[in-house]
Amino acid sequence: MRTEKEKMLSGELYNPLDPQLAEERHRARLLAKAFNDSSDDQGKERKRLLLELFGAMGKGTFIEPPFYCDYGGNITLGDRVFFNFSCVILDVAAVTIGNHVMFGPGVQIYTATHPLDAEQRRSGLEAAKPITINDDVWIGGGAILCPGVTIGARSVIGAGSVVTRDIPAGVFAAGNPCRVVRSLENETSR
User: Fold this and answer.
1) Residue from 114, 129, 154, 179 carrying the catalytic annotation
2) Average pLDDT along the chain, 190 residues, taken 10 residues at a time
3) Residue 114: active-site member
4) Domain residue spans in the chain?
5) Which residues form the Maltose/galactoside acetyltransferase domain (predicted)?
6) Burial class of 124 by CB neighbour count within 10 A (0 to 12, 13 to 18, 19+)
7) Quick one: 4-183 is in which CATH superfamily?
């Protein structure tokens, strides 16, 4: 018989009130609170807390508090990832973040989803879809990434965008819903 965690990670409907999942979320919240309550002169302690939260981090990763997540252990961080203030990751499914990725303040990454059918939703069961953010991506402040999306390498997501579909590599995309505005492949830095 599959555990609720196995169901959750495979994208099936699962019970979020399962004791194991509740305990893992509680652990993540305690670690995030300790990180968020730390001061700027506690760099080593912040790094220790983040390593305990995520299990591993890429080199040069930096996260400005406050930072919030559901589990932490479902987040994979590449090298030189930067999160600005007040970012949220609902990592019910895997969130994979490549190298040299930047997040503006208030970015929200949601893998969690709920049934569209009201009766099924009333049951309390949930599901999740993984999110992938490839290398050299910049996500502008206040953007929201919805369940199941992939952001292609070298792309930029405009501030305040709501990403509901995959975004290809090497483009600037913005809006609600987020859509490709133009290619960045032949542009030089401005």
Assistant:
1) 114
2) 95 97 98 97 96 96 97 98 98 98 98 95 96 98 98 98 98 98 79
3) yes
4) 4-183
5) 5-59
6) exposed
7) Hexapeptide repeat proteins (2.160.10.10)
